[in-house]
Write a structure and sequence with these properties.
20% strand, globular, alpha/beta, UDP-N-acetylmuramoyl-L-alanine:D-glutamate ligase, 9-stranded mixed beta sheet, 2 domains, Protein-Tyrosine Phosphatase, Chain A
Length: 425
């Protein structure tokens, strides 16, 4: 009962925060509870009968987590997860408050949590995850993570807390080295691997950042491989069987997310794992909050494309339908140094109607250097959106908005859409 006062206070703060700012303030209760009861988070996360699964890495965490939860639920498990994609310490605590009893226990068979690399590494010493899944190491959030070596070090801290299995992307050189380290040391941890074939890499030469593929590193028949990607469909090879896979959005990066989810479900379920059940479940999830999501506003279908680092920007640009003729790009204050995105080749966009956000002039300059025609620069996202939606429906493709996280929040708020991804857990 030692956490009861903190839980009750946190719930009161949650009510006040939502009253003051509907749809927002979701991390505030967690911040309060972590301050007055710093042991609550670990107490709750380590208390699930079938353990804790952590998903971390530079990119793909949110989509992978949602796919993994679907796969585990399809096998009959009751899963607790941070559905709001709140992946930092206070956000995780807030998510737990939604379901915790007054004693601090959360109902469910297993917990599956997306964790930010930095916050995950900070709380890792208090956790005993049964499975840790690592997606990749990329140049990401350079104001927080100064280089890829730093990110790899943070993920290593999380991986070393696993009591059972570490699932790694064998195409990522940093993670491949970590897997080798875990294999060679007497850690008691099993390493399971997944990745893409050389054919998939050859068809996607930009953005993935791989120089060798899992197919070249792994023994024949070992691990899960993405063998083919075409639009919103893919094929996986696992234990000599080829499976068709439906994806929530276009692109090889979504196929890799799906592979992470299936490989992690396999690690978590052990002998109960049914590949066909897991893959079918993965194919049923909708796009995750801004990541290939399609919404309808005033009769217009709009595709939202979230870009969070150079790799995701490149992969998403390359995955757009070639006939897309109405594009708005909104890059906001979260991109503190606009040169961060200059490694991205945006030339395939050809024509952008409006560049918007607080970094509108910076992204417009990059586009022009890549020989992309930019019709208008409008830093005010609301004004830009009104002008964009006032245009007639495109003759080819659908209206497409490419945005950073800040641009996404401002876009959704202006359009009257939810500004967080909370849903029942």
């Amino acid at each position: 009962m030692r956490y009861t006062p903190a839980i009750l206070i946190g719930r009161g703060v949650r009510v006040l925060a939502r009253w003051r700012k509907p749809g927002g303030g979701s991390a505030v209760p967690g911040l309060v509870v972590n301050t007055i009861a710093p042991g609550f988070l670990a107490h709750a996360l380590n208390g699930f009968p079938q353990g804790l699964v952590i998903v971390s890495g530079s990119s793909g965490k949110s989509t992978t987590t949602k796919m993994l939860v679907a796969a585990l639920r399809a096998h009959g498990l009751t899963v607790f997860t941070n559905s709001s994609t709140a992946n930092i310490r206070q956000g995780l605590t807030s998510a737990l408050l939604e379901r915790a009893s007054v004693t601090g226990r959360v109902a469910g068979d297993i917990a599956v949590l997306e964790m930010d690399e930095g916050h995950g590494a900070a709380i890792a010493p208090t956790l005993t995850p049964r499975v840790v899944a690592l997606t990749n190491v990329m140049v990401d959030q350079i104001d927080r993570f100064h280089d890829s070596d730093m990110v790899a070090g943070l993920l290593r801290k999380i991986a070393l807390r696993s009591t059972g299995v570490v699932v790694i992307n064998a195409d990522d050189a940093y993670l491949a080295d970590l897997g080798g380290e875990l294999d060679s040391e007497a850690t008691g941890v099993t390493v399971e691997r997944y990745g893409v074939t050389s054919d998939v890499l050859a068809a996607n030469p930009r953005g993935l950042g791989y120089t060798r593929t899992a197919a070249e590193r792994l023994p024949a028949g070992d691990g899960l491989l993405v063998t083919e990607v075409s639009g919103r469909s893919a094929r996986f090879a696992l234990e000599g069987v080829s499976y068709p896979v439906a994806l929530p959005a276009r692109g090889t990066h979504y196929a890799v997310d799906a592979a992470t989810a299936v490989a992690t479900a396999r690690a978590a379920l052990g002998s109960r794992f049914d590949a066909a059940v897991a893959i079918e479940a993965v194919g049923t999830i909708p796009p995750v909050f801004g990541r290939g999501e399609i919404v309808t506003v005033n009769g217009h279908e709009i595709e939202f494309v979230l870009v969070q680092n150079p790799a995701s920007f490149q992969l998403n640009v390359d995955s757009l339908e070639p006939s897309t003729e109405q594009i708005l790009i909104a890059i906001g204050s979260d991109v503190r140094d606009p040169s961060y995105f200059w490694p991205v080749d945006t030339s395939s966009l050809g024509h952008v109607l409006i560049a918007s956000g607080s970094k509108a002039h910076d992204i417009a300059l990059q586009l022009v250097y890549d020989d992309v025609t930019v019709d208008r620069i409008e830093p005010d996202v609301g004004v830009a959106l009104d002008a964009f939606l006032a245009l007639p429906k495109p003759a080819h493709g659908m209206k497409t908005i490419i945005f950073s996280a800040d641009g996404m929040r401002r876009t959704r708020a202006h359009l009257g859409l939810a500004t967080n991804a909370e849903e029942p857990v």
